Amino acid sequence: MTSILIIDDEVEVGNFLSHLFMSKGYNVTVVNSGKEFNEIDFSHQPFHAAMIDLKLPDANGLVLLKHLKRRQPHCKVIIMTGYSTIKTAVEAMKLGASDYIEKPFDDIDLLEAQVDDLLISNVTSNEQRILDLAINVGLIVGQNETMRQLIQTAYKVAGKNVNVLIEGETGTGKEVLARFIHQASQRSYESFIGVNCGALSESLLESELFGHEKGAFTGATQMRKGLFEIASKGTLFLDEIAEASTSIQVKLLRVLETREFMRLGGERIFRTNTRLLAATNEDLQEAVQQKKFREDLFYRLNVVHLQIPPLRERKEDIPLLMEHFLKRYPGIEITFSDDAVKTMQSYEWPGNIRELSNCITRIVTLADSGHVKITADHLPFTGQRSVTSKKLTASSRSETLGEGMDEHIEKWMDEALCFYSQKEDIDLEEVLAQVKQLESQLGKALILQTLEATHGNRKEAAKRLQISTRKLRYLLNEKVNTE
Question: pTM for this structure?
């Protein structure tokens, strides 16, 4: 017979749950304290599932969870919690809890369904379902234990209507993880809409999020719905949330607190039920301490916190990621030597998975037709820094930048001398166009080499170049679009 353990200090709750599950044919044991829990002989009394209240007068629910999972690792656990302790409930899920439910129990049918699903679910099939879903959205989990725990937690919280903050370095796949959460949720058939808070000006971002009425500002020739309205039943992903202005932060806080907003230039109040996912490559907690980000908004967004590890901390997954990116190019046979794979694994990857993807694309583009075997000598970063190499000093960075500038200038001078030696008449417009082209090339080279020197840290690179982070992104996007 299926056995369930109920741990709750409220006698009425224990009696209610006991009656509910005994009527379904389950064997139920109820304890009302940590002391009674410690008196259970777990070696002779196996449990298939347990419901643990996080707050007991004489015990911590997390401690009881650890003890139960240590004695009976296959016992599936549901944490019972109030809204104020949801963050703790998420921590419990990281420790092995299968799910959590908020008290008081407003929906008894949901409670029954959670327990029934828990008892009939198979651990192996559930893990396979998670991996299949991840692959479908392009999220490669691999063998890294931190990444596997992250995806398990993300899957567990996906079905809850709570805000999630995703942190991770540039290129680690924050938006892909957000899409995974959306697809694993009950909103998967609704819209998933993302917006980069750092790519738009304050006025444009405000209009994008909340919409505007006709005539709200110059150029507003017609009414436009905002993303909170369009994605009201779906998921809204705010990337680079740390870049949002103070004014936008205030408006976001109001929406999260009241679920209400108004279009720009309008007077009508709209309600939204969108599920909010936010991401940043900065330490938002540090931004709060530096007064760059509102503390109250931070706590509203950070109900569930997910930290994606950088690629250098999951190098065992690099071969699998390489294979995944190569599958994008059917008909092209490319293999990597053992030395090449080791070199790929020893490289730091400051641009993380995005940089690895671009590296594979470059290799495929330059490869000849037929079967090609890539060795370490073919790799563009052979001889450059690796995980164990020392960082560049300020003087060596300067030398590196100087070499890049010399290369572009010398090439341009050679081409210009060759061109003008063959002409008697000089077209001034053509000269100015070539100078402008040189300026663009030098700018691109300087930006890329500064990023190289700062290990992909765009904020630090922008500081060294004495431009804004937004200007840096614009120039990088311009580069991508013109090549």
Answer: 0.71
